[in-house]
Amino acid sequence: MVTAVITPVLLCGGSGTRLWPLSRKSYPKQFSPLIGDTSLFQASAARLAGDGFAAPLILTNSDFRFIVTEQLSEAGIDPAAILIEPEGRNTAPAVLAAALWLAKSDPDALMLVAPSDHVVPDAPAFRAAVAAGAEAAKSGQLVTFGIKPTHGETGYGYLELAEDPGDFSARPLALKRFVEKPDAARADEMVAAGTYLWNAGIFLFSARAIIAAFKAHAPDLMAPVTASVDQGKTDLGFLRLAAEPWAQADDISIDYAVMEHADNLSVVPFAAGWSDLGGWDAVWRETKRDARGVATTGAATALDCDDTLLRSEDDTLEVVGIGLKDTIVVAMPDAVLVADASRSQDVKKAVALLKAKSAKQATMFPKDHRPWGWFESLVIGKRFQVKRIVVHPGAALSLQSHHHRSEHWIVVEGTARVTVDDEVKLLSENQSVYIPLGAVHRMENPGKVPMVLIEVQTGSYLGEDDIIRYEDVYARE
């Protein structure tokens, strides 16, 4: 049991590409149910909730702010605050901003900094490890958490211990040094030595201690980050950090900025299972497999396959593998990945090639998530587009008009309240309405269940930037 109240600080602004095509810049892996029925972000928030934990502090970017609030609401978790980073500047400025925000109310507050895209199957064991490091953190130590390695992994940095970890039980140990990601031979040597841990990038310290560490080891970050927090503006329950001073902060990780220079470090070993899901090979290891090592998810079927991952993210798209070995197949409605399992780290190279050829699949998710719900394009022609739009109960799109397109809306599930110029009316299933070009319009869901409609757009230009907003409850620019 955690012996001191700890504020979880969840970092969820990243946009990793190694799990493409499921993880993309517009909807990265932390918000997807990669393992189980909840997203990695929701699982992380739930793992650090309950007895001994305060409400979480979230750091994300503007594009994900409503996804964060929606997923926290679904998980029944009310955040202490959601800080919006104007742009990604790596983990050091983000952690310092969180510490400065916490220190305003309690300089001695303990904060547990954790990425929101890790898998930890044994949540009670992890909470026990956090509790084991709490006293050291209260005394001014900067506590990091290291994972007992199961193999010679080249995708992680390592922590070299200054003492024998013994049975790797959770207790603060002295840390000798941080080790960069090794090659395969060196990784195997370190695992065999028994005094190295994987660097999980999870930290526990007081706001006072980490601020003092930044002042000592990364003083150039203090002024811009402090100004960004002090000049931040509240917006619909979010705190938008001020953009101008934030842009002056170095783009640097907390490891490089502080941890590698500090002398008040401790490390707590954790041996109960962990993965940062840094590639599809890691997802394969964390997914339930049959006797031949085959993991299937969704509409997927395997015949005479071995050590293979088959995954379909669309119920209407059946993936069939025959005679495959050490293969990864991931199918989305708009993209399919087929790779040798040993090349899973090269997925990010493939994404770079897609970006170079301006393929929208490189960054854009098939479903476009908005604060009111989401939409997806079903058919796109030269002068028309058909979308499916899902609006959450009680949610509303902005009051808007278009220069270049008209629209037909057909309600297929639920009830819609529709505004077209001066007319407001309710539409139920199988009813439709026409929105002429230039008409000021809005749709709302007044019901208690999701509302689904089919939208048919026609016009000379169908881009999402052809919107003039007059009112928006979500204060979007």
Notes on the protein architecture:
This protein has helices at residues 40-47, 65-74, 91-103, 123-138, 184-193, 207-217, 222-230, 243-246, 254-259, 280-286, 347-356; strands at 6-11, 57-61, 81-85, 110-115, 142-147, 158-161, 173-179, 196-206, 233-235, 238-240, 265-270, 295-297, 300-303, 309-312, 319-322, 327-331, 336-340, 367-370, 373-380, 384-391, 399-401, 405-413, 416-420, 423-427, 432-435, 441-444, 451-459, 468-471. The chain has 477 residues and is of the alpha/beta class. It has three domains: 6-270, Alpha-Beta Complex (Spore Coat Polysaccharide Biosynthesis Protein SpsA, Chain A), CATH 3.90.550.10; 286-356, no CATH class; 367-471, Jelly Rolls (Sandwich), CATH 2.60.120. The strands form six sheets. It has a six-stranded antiparallel sheet with strand order 18-19-20-27-22-25, with no helix packed on it. Strands 5-8-6-7-11 form a five-stranded mixed barrel. The chain has a four-stranded mixed sheet with strand order 12-14-16-17, with helices on one face. Strand 19 (373-380) and strand 20 (384-391) form a beta hairpin. Helix 3 (91-103) packs across helix 7 (222-230). The longest helix has 16 residues, at 123-138. The protein is globular and about 75 Å long. The mean pLDDT is 93.
